[in-house]
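Continuing the series of single-chain predictions for the mutant panel. This is the parent chain; the variants come on the following pages.
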Amino acid sequence: MESLKFYIKEHKPFILLYGFCLLLGVILFICDIYKISIGDTDRTTVKSLLTSISLPPAIILYGFYCRKFFRVCKDYKTQHKETKILYLKHQSYSICVDNFNGAYKFFFCSEKPEGKKACYWLYRKDLMYDELTNCLKYKVTYYKKTKCLYSIEPICDYTESTKRQKKTHKIDKNNADNKPLSATLTSIWFPFLRNSLAKHSNPRTDTQETIVETVTAIGIPVKRRLKNSVNQDFLLRVQNEDGKKKALLFNSTEILGLGDLNQRPGYMGYGNFIGTKYEIEYYMHSHTVKTMKIIN
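Parent structure:
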């Protein structure tokens, strides 16, 4: 349920914006055809018409994403589920459209040990994923149209040998698999945020004036090399007590007070990080963090 809701929320802006742009493109194409039909042809009209050659593949791509989106919407509305006994063959992750939110997890399962694999997926806000062992049988309950997982439970005991084979799956953006429903689109808002923060990220231009606030983490830290910046390598989205959202900058995850992320569970060690409250002190103009203290 939560995975479906998150997918709809994350992809809705893209569906609306891309659809609006395509609609404008189609209207311009019709106008160009009309001008040519009445003999009102100029160089601009011809160039615009030639540019319209990209419309068919764009419409096909949009239709592909719309099909997935509306199937998710239908599953969310109808809540139709199916349950099967399946073999888990392979697991992978794919980063979200907005990679501050973490990743989707994918389970590739088959009805027989050597049967054809199908992809099942989920997203959890707390980024805590089940540590499952490949080649074992599981009772899988999923939403019928999209194969979004409702639950996945082992139906046989773990032996000592399978326990030794069990691995904790953690990835970074360099080895994430781009699988179905992975939304291989770039976050719309981030380039603007990056350019805005880059203007103020030079420590030499920052004043010593600081702000102390209580904030809640609404995303995970994402490593970014900002323009004209040497040290500020991480961005973290937070929300203060007044509901205002902002991005903070820092150069090491050690300031988060979480210890060794490699020893923590979940996606990249940020399993239960979203929702953590901090008392922070940061520089007013650059949003560079000076100190962070965990409250809960």
